[in-house]
UniProtKB/TrEMBL annotation:
Statement: the UniProt record of this protein carries the keyword Aminoacyl-tRNA synthetase: no
Organism: Seohaeicola nanhaiensis
Span of domain ABC transmembrane type-1: 147-330, 466-645
Keyword Transmembrane: yes
Similarity comment: Belongs to the binding-protein-dependent transport system permease family.
Localization per Swiss-Prot or TrEMBL: Cell membrane
PROSITE patterns reported in the protein's UniProt record: ABC_TM1 (PS50928)
Name of the featured protein: ABC transporter permease
Amino acid sequence: MRGRWSLAFWAGLFGLTWLLSAYSFQLSKAWDARWLLKYPKPWELPLEGAIKSFLDWLVEDANFGLFTFRDLTRAIAAVVELPYRVLRDLLIEGFHSGIGDSAVQLSPSLSWIAVIACATAIGHYARDWKLGALVGGCFLYLAVFGQWESAMITLASVLVAVPIGAGGGLLLGIAAYRLPWVERALRPVLDLMQTVPVFAYLVPILILFGFGPVAALVATVIYAMPPMVRITVVALRGVPDEVMEAGRMAGGTRRQLMWKVLVPSAAPTLMVGVNQVIMLTLNMVIIASMIGAGGLGFDVLAALRRLDIGGGIEAGLAIVVMAIALDRASQAFAERSQRGRMAGNLVQRHPWTGTVFVIIIATLILGQFVPGVQRYPEALTVTTGPFWGEAMKWINVNFFDTFEAIKVVILNALLLPVKKFFGGIPWAWGIVVMGLIGWRVGGWTLGLLAALLMGFIAATGLWPKAMVTVYLCGVSVLIATLIGIPLGIWAAEKPAAGRVILGLMDTLQTLPSFVYLIPVVMLFRVGDFSAMIAVVLYALAPAVRYAAHGLRSVPEALLEAGAMAGCTRRQLLWRIKLPMAAPQLLLGLNQTIMLALSMLVITALVGTRDLGQEVYIALAKAQAGPGIVAGLSVAFLAIVADRIFNALAEGQRRRLGL
């Protein structure tokens, strides 16, 4: 009976929403009630002006007694700029004395040979010769294909942002672990930091720190830190009680227990957090190039702006190669921390140290006489730009009609009807619907939260843009789920196929988000369809991974009981594995939505008219108010979706007795 009532509730809610969406335009004309579809202008919250005034006050007048806010930002900039400048000098520019034309070089930068030797040594130290060859080969690729200088600028940014992000996240995570009130205070802040679009970070930071690499680094650290905080709390709580008891029995103080027992024991999980910080940092490099970061990100962005297909793909591949090298090395360090320490003295434990030191000194000396040792010879560089340009041209010439036919069919059969449905929902009814969904799934608290957050979006005048975002996200997530769950099932059921599929997902997850736009724009041009394709590719991995993990986590005892009851393989899948994996599937759907929303803001560059476009326009005009308001609206959509799907997953766990 309860199941029938639940089905009637959802069917009735959808049916009423569909009717209102279909006839809202006619009703608004018949009743002369434009407020049905658009929130009345006089009622809108004056947030944009308030945010602008607040930032002006911060920059111009804010005073904390001993120092002003401007002094604080300058101090932060100096702390960040010093290691960044040292690393740029070390990797690409060399050390100089003096300023401008009178500057005298004190020492050249590390040669390309020395940097590759260091990268190879790190890979070998982290795992073995295979990883060393992979990491070294990736850096050699950057030199051979003419991307060395830009790659070293990007690497300098990564080497500054990752320690600050990982170290700051570790300290905040420890504070949250020790003090429950800190965790409660941090949770909503971290939710916002992880759901506010990255473009929205750039607008206030541009105003507070100005244009340049320092502002880009500050934005990168803010964007990359939240996963480290969350993983630190989880890792510390995951340390067995027996380990803590052994530390207490040995007479450890509170500080010693933290730094000599808890943190070392949690090191493998903490390294996963460091890996996430590295990946998010690389994901940010292109976006940060909009406010002066330079490097490979600037090359990709410049290529997109001038429609240089070959140059864009070449710079994008360089980011991918660097991402693969750093990702594999950091994953290996996470695994290495679980192995025992090597025996012997310092030289025996670190055989590469002396070799690398000799290579650095030798190349510094030889580089003074043989320029090709210091910098990779330009005559030996290889460019694939013309190849990629011609390849895209050939594909467009030979398959234009096929691509266009597919595009038209999907637009007419799926995208436009869904867009019309969401675009016609009256804002007041949309708030009520989200409140009812939240109440039905997670109780009145979640229902009230969902209604309030959707009410904020309506009250800022962004309801129509938000519905475009919801429509694009919904369609993209639907397609990603329809592709991802079968792939996850295949990966779980067939180990050989699983290695290939999950390896492909690893590759997709290491690609920075901007890289997806280059081939999609070249093949399908700008518009909603191109945005959808890019979002599906970017958001596909969680659907596959969670489906595979969920199916593999089903207890063997249940499968044996099903087999003894005479179930076929198909019956085992549909009647035991998938129902038991439902919580994991819902969590995968949740993560797919989060990635889709983050990517949709970036697809504003290919012509979508949603909240992402509002954020991008605000960045282009350096308008903090509109950018922050639109960014908060995206964040609130993400928070509502996150809470609803987490509640669904939790309810499914309870029903299954997990």
